[in-house]
Amino acid sequence: MTRTMVGAAIVVMLAAPAVGRVQKDPAYQTAPAAKPADARAPAGRAGNGATLYKKVGCYQCHANEGQGGLAGPRIGPSPVPYARFLQYIRNPTGDMPPYTARVLTNQDVADIYAFLEARPRPPAVDTIPQLAP
Ligand code: HEC
After folding, report:
1. Cα 58 from chain centroid?
2. CA 21, CA 47: separation in Å to the nearest integer?
3. CA dihedral in degrees (24, 30, 35, 40; nearest 10)?
4. Could you report the per-residue pLDDT of 41-94, keeping only the tens digit for each?
5. Which of 55, 60, 62 to mutate to test the pocket of ligand 1 (most atoms within 8 A of CB)?
6. Which end of the chain is more exposed for a tag (fewer CB within 10 A), N or C?
7. Higher pLDDT residue, 95 or 11?
């Protein structure tokens, strides 16, 4: 072996464990496709969800009650099905930033989901005198 080959071999051996670590770290992985078993939201704590919703900044685009605003659509009180919700938070495809498991665990996401589901529903349009036909 030439000196260069030995050098290259050492570089490969040193790099290999680091590559393994990065691949195993959940924060570097994209979320696996949701399985049917994930379709129902795990029990969430709406109170903790409210705190997280403010802390990680969902409110900045989706507004305080999830009603939506200029930077993001309405996401409460009837969010998309839970499997889609979790999948989109991990791998958004539009203007929304991704949230890895390092920032929000699956339980955190379930808590935010519970918070959004618990938002008050608006009254029916025909019960509002000003809007009645
Ligand atoms: C920087 C602005 C921004 C932030 C912060 C943000 N979102 Fe979004 N979100 C968007 C936009 C814009 C969309 C519309 C789709 C797109 O462009 O990605 C969206 C879409 C969604 C959707 C709808 C997905 C669908 O299938 O229709 C959900 C659910 C959602 N966001 C949840 C969240 C939650 C929960 C948080 C906080 C953890 C959050 N978003 C933080 C901008 C944001």
Report:
1. 10
2. 35
3. 110
4. 788 999 999 999 999 999 999 999 999 999 999 999 999 999 999 999 999 999
5. 62
6. C
7. 95
> What amino acid is encoded at 124 in this protein?
A
* Ligand 1 within 6 A of CB of 84: yes
Q: Is the beta carbon of 20 within 6 A of some atom in ligand 1? A: no
The confidence score (pLDDT) of residue 4 equals 58
Distances (CA, A) of 10 to 3, 15, 97: 11, 8, 38
Q: pTM to 2 decimals?
A: 0.76
| Of the candidate ranges 10-19, 104-113, 117-126, the one whose mean pLDDT is the lowest | 10-19
Q: Is the distance from the beta carbon of residue 58 to the nearest atom of ligand 1 less than 6 Å?
A: yes
Query: Ligand 1 mean position to 90 CA, how many Å?
Result: 10
CB atoms < 10 A from the CB of 107, how many?
13
Atom 13, ligand 1: residue with shortest CA distance:
72
